[in-house]
Design brief:
The protein has seven helices and seven strands; from the N terminus they run βαβββαααβββααα. By secondary structure, it is an alpha/beta fold.
Length: 211
């Protein structure tokens, strides 16, 4: 379960009045089909979703999350209606400077890989004293869009650049992936686990977004 993609902006609506919205959409043509929306977006269906939500991430990608039963025509209309908003937000995240970025080169990766591995091992041992989770392999990678990930097999992977982050940000990434061993999602249970050792995790998330 990766944490790499950090949302910067959201748009959405609740589906409590879905029939009214759908009727309006059927009467009003949308500008383009999903495949032709610019910038393109990824549609993600989630049974846990309680609304249709569009997120512009800090890497410039766009994802729409919707419950399985929401018709595609409604999603297309929703995205098409906000194409100007999408373009504006994508431009903002692409043009502003990024202090903490996952991108790096191989030379830098080789120079910091061992340091990152030792850091991950030590901080995992420290924080896992509070959780007692069981994990397997720890891997350091040169990833372009992820800070870390957790597999269902219990393997943890981290971007070598965690070794270059301020300690509180590195700890957040390490705890985030560690807690996926207890909840392989981003539910209230998961964030409750994170809060046990990183009580100010919300402000840290905002710090990633702002920089």
């Amino acid at each position: 379960m990766p944490i790499a993609k950090i949302p910067c902006f959201y748009k959405g609506f609740l589906y409590s009045n879905i029939q009214t919205i759908l009727d309006r959409c059927l009467k009003t043509p949308y500008n383009a089909p999903m495949a032709n929306i610019h910038p393109p977006f990824t549609l993600r269906r989630s049974r846990r979703a309680h609304s249709v939500r569009m997120a512009v991430y800090c890497d410039g990608t766009v994802t729409v999350t919707a419950p399985p039963f929401i018709p595609k025509i409604l999603i297309n209309h929703f995205v098409s209606k906000h194409t100007e908003w999408i373009a504006k937000k994508v431009q903002q995240v692409q043009t502003r400077p990024r202090l903490y970025t996952t991108r790096g080169n191989r030379k830098e990766f080789i120079a910091h890989r061992e340091h990152a591995l030792v850091l991950a091992q030590e901080r995992l041992q420290h924080f896992n004293a509070s959780y007692n989770f069981s994990y397997k392999k720890i891997t350091i990678r040169n990833q372009k869009t992820r800070w870390g990930s957790c597999s269902k097999k219990g393997n943890l992977s981290f971007n070598y650049k965690v070794a270059l982050l301020p300690p509180h940000l590195a700890d957040y990434i390490i705890v985030h992936e560690l807690c996926h061993l207890g909840a392989f999602n981003h539910s209230e249970k998961f964030w409750g686990l994170v809060a046990q050792t990183i009580p100010d995790y919300k402000s840290i998330k905002r710090e990633f977004v702002k920089t």
